[in-house]
Amino acid sequence: MEAAFEIPLPTLPVETAEFSADPDPWLESARREHPWLARFSHGYIVHGYQATVDLLSDDTRLRPGYGGIVDHYGERGTLWGRFWEENLGTPFEQAHIRQRASVADAFTPRHANQLRPLIQQVMNDLLDEWLPRGAFDFAEFASYFPVTVICSILGVSPEPIPRLRSALEAQFALFGLDLAAKPLIMESWEVLWSFADELVTLREKGDEYDDNSLLDWMIAAARSGKLSETELRFALITLLTAGYDTSKNMLTLVMKLLLEQPESYTRCAEDKDYCRKVVQEALRHSGIGIPFRDVVAEFDYGGFQFRTGDRLVFPASLPGRDPAVFPDPLAFNPERANSNRHVAFGRGRHICLGQFIASAQLQEGLHLIAQRLKNPQLAGDVRWRPFLSVWGLETLPITFTPQS
Ligand code: HEM
Predict the structure, then answer these.
(1) For the whole model, what pTM was predicted?
(2) Cα distance between residue 91 and residue 74, in whole Å
(3) pLDDT the model gives residue 207
(4) Predicted confidence (pLDDT) per residue in 219-235, tens digit
(5) Atom of ligand 1 nearest to the CA of 288
(6) What is the 402 CA–ligand 1 centroid distance (Å)?
(7) CA–CA dist 42, 40 (Å, integer)
(8) Measured from the CB, is residue 250 less than 6 Å from ligand 1?
(9) Nearest CA to ligand 1 atom 37
(10) Residue 230 sits in a domain of what CATH number?
(11) Could you tell me the pLDDT band of residue 208, with boundaries at 50, 70 and 90?
(12) Per-residue b/e over 352-373, b at no fewer than 16 CB within 10 Å?
């Protein structure tokens, strides 16, 4: 068995703006050289469907690779470094199981369904506020949706949302591994930490416990010793970071895909079940998450030997475009029979905790948008976000006819 680094492999220019705007030409050419693996400047990109499923499910030899990222920025041992190494998505097995279990009850499919009226209320309020403009940047509009829903689930006031939005955007620049972005990443971390710290401190001082507030559950978990005080703050920041860019970018991509298919958009206004199909297919076609993994124990897979310290990255959009599993993969077809095999929420022990809430948000949000925002048209150039952050659109300018 040859070590992976000794085997010739294509390189994907994932750090470039051109790749982010249109990965397919590179992907197609890389696939001709190797069916599932390519290199990038800091490790390997896994792009084949089966390899993504197999490797992301291997939680013992591959672990979320944030330690290497923390070292890259020279931040080992700082609060920020500890956050990325110890938070809910942490590589340490027992700590991960304990932290995940302490909030998991709030993320079951049943709980997500109970949140639907709240999700509808948040979207209707946003549409009331934004529709009279007749034109806006859909990415900006969408950015208020998940963060307002998360604040409502946590049971906290929406007042800090504007300053949280930009801090949450900036934090994900860390995956670009560009040291020039470090000051911005650290500034945004200060905003997130102060928010979490002040919120918990204030709430802990009060004696009113709200059974429906996730934050109060988490505080109760800390009081009973299931979470430390720092873990409690880290968990709060994790829910915000994990649930913000992801849902906002996904909703914006769904809108972009539907701008090109007006009949599908119209059908979304009439048929909520069809919205579910649209969301599944969008997650298949344009998954936006980019799980990182570090190899922690040497292993062989598919003719390669991976060594301890190798970094593997799994951009969710690429396995969704594997023609071996999804025929005609670039076609956006909500009636596709196997869209639900997408890997947009990951696999294995770290599979997205918020996936049922995310799906409910996208489905309910899309249904209301299609009912109230009629005849949307692209009204300018779109800009793409860096591929290795949370992928998606930076801007999506649209005009439309508001429906009262
Ligand atoms: C469309 C929206 C979303 C997408 C595409 C998405 C995608 C993902 C992916 C791919 C992972 C796995 C990361 C890895 O394996 O390293 C993940 C983890 C996670 N997600 Fe999501 N996510 C979304 C929305 C949300 C929401 C709304 C929340 C919470 C409110 C959330 C909370 C989390 C958490 C806490 C984790 C870490 C789980 C763990 O490590 O045990 N996500 N998400």
Answers:
(1) 0.93
(2) 19
(3) 60
(4) 888 888 888 999 999 99
(5) 5
(6) 33
(7) 6
(8) yes
(9) 89
(10) 1.10.630.10
(11) low
(12) bbbbbbbbbbbbbbbbbbbebb
Domains identified in the chain, total number: 1
Mean pLDDT of 142-163: 86
Q: Establish whether residue 237 lines the binding site of ligand 1, counting it when its CB lies within 6 angstroms of any ligand atom.
A: no
Q: Is the CB of 357 under 6 A from ligand 1?
A: yes
Residue 353 beta carbon below 6 angstroms from any ligand 1 atom: yes
Domain range for residue 86?
2-402
Which residues share a beta bridge with 306? 299
Please report, for residues 10, 36, 347, the alpha-carbon distance to residue 32 in angstroms, rounded to integers and kept in the order given: 9, 10, 26
> What is the C-alpha separation between 261 and 369, in angstroms, rounded?
15
Minimum CA distance residue for ligand 1 atom 3: 246
Ligand 1 centre to CA of 355 (Å) is 7
Instruction: Identify the pLDDT of residue 79.
Output: 95
Residue 359 CA: which ligand 1 atom is closest? 1
Q: Measure 6 CA to ligand 1 centroid, in angstroms.
A: 34
Beta bridge partners of 293: 64, 312
Q: Which element (helix H / strand E) includes 304?
A: strand 304-306
In contact, 353 and 107? CB cutoff 8 Å = yes
| Ligand 1 center to 354 CA (angstroms) | 6
Residue 400: both structure tokens together: 């439309």
Q: What is the pLDDT of residues 283-306, one digit of tens each?
A: 999 999 999 999 999 999 999 999
Using CA atoms, how far apart are residues 255 and 278, in angstroms rounded to an integer?
10
